[in-house]
Design a protein that fits this description.
This protein is an alpha+beta fold. It is about 15% helix and about 50% strand.
Length: about 550
Amino acid sequence: MLSHAIPRPLRRLLAWTAWCVAGLALVVVAAFLYVTFIGITVDAAFLRGRVAQAFSENLGRDVRFDGPMEFEVSARPKLRVGGLHIANPPGFGGGDYASLGEARLALDLWPLLFRKQLHIQELSGSDVHASLQLRADGTNNWTLRRPPPAPRPATTDAPAAVSADEAIAALDIQSVRLDNLQVRYTGPEGREHFFTLANLEARSRAGQPFSMRLQGSVEKEFPYRLEFTGGALADLARDRPWPVDMKLTFLSSTLVIHGEVNGARGRVTFGLGTENLLEFQRMLQARLPDVGASGIAGTVEFEPRRVRITQLAGAMGATSLIGHLDFDGTGSRPRISGELALPALDLRPFLGEKPAPDERAQQPANLGDVYRSIAAATFSLKQMGSADLDLTLAVQRWLSLPGDVRDVTLQLKLERGVLHAPLGAAIAGVQLKGSVDTDATAEPPRFRLALGTSDSDLGGLAELLAGVRGIRGHLGRFALRLSAQGDQGAELVRSLDIGLDVERGRFSYGNVEGGRPVEFALDKLALRLPAGKALDADMR
């Protein structure tokens, strides 16, 4: 009835309008479905200037884009940018500080709608170059001088921020990839070092372990490979125990770590084996002893400012050890304590000497060889002031000293650069006791060694000290004192002051094959050899 009341032209207009609205709605729905499921790509090259300007203002550096900048709008959005260049600050040359060939980001928003998870399908970068420079005055080109942030108006109705653990728990990372990362570092002396990451692959699916593999080279010639597996990223953010498994292969060296961490605390076991410890020297940019084939293993427990190493066992060249160490940084000064038992000890590689091919068989023939060894050493006594020490050493055989040195016990007590170390040892068959004292706070540093015995057989001391064979006998009293001052080995040798006292000695010489022993007594021998002066001796 109502339709008959509406004029026919108006009915046609209403019908036409309904069809238009329906058609428009259909187009909108179709467009929405197309954008959602198929997507459209937008070329945002016209924004490169604005983005570069925003980067420049925030970084305090000239930034430019000369590559693609596009994004895809859909339920699985994608972003691709490239040709990013960040300039060096003034005074570091006109080249780039860093550049990026291309970066990609691909998301899947459906899990975010239904499971509150942000699914990252791809996060990748390629052809990343960085040129790091450090000058002699301490300035560098990687410290960014950002402008102070503008003050934000106070708001009372701001939504609650998402916590870090909630944000990480929402991540579902399918693939992270980085290809061709090249870093060049130029130090104050102008020497260049190179680090290359050929490729890196990582993934962290929701609720599954995080895994990463990477490989590359150091100094353009030393290849490395790292395999790492951890726990779920959500557990790491929620301060739960996080398992760690890592294997690093570098030339002929392999480092394996297994355990778990919980925030700043953890417990891991480690093992390092290498055919040549110096392979790590250029990788770590740290001076290491030339000890050849080495291996070390132990258990590390750490917490804020404290590290404990237990079940420690190692072999470095001719040196081997077992024991435990504690590194404590909770006080006003770092402190190292523990106990080490060394079946064999050879300090020469740790003092900067290069071992001979038959290092295990060679030992200093006399004290002169020791003096020459110390003179060439590269240690510094002043470095003793960097930490305190309370360490017990038990050395079964000391290879880097002349003669047969065995059963050495050394109590190292180092406080604020002052060392006092009572010691006992069997040297050339004679039981000796004494102490080592060093004051690194003095200018120049001072060193003193005292060894002595009473009512003891002579053993091989005569051949060790004077190079004379065939002497036997008994000592009523024997005392040897060495003192020196200086920081480096050469300074210590030049300032060496030697004192030797023997009392109530009963000896015989000629105790060699074909010889006729002759007995003699030495009631007193006082020998002094001051630094740079003539020998002074009084013998009765």
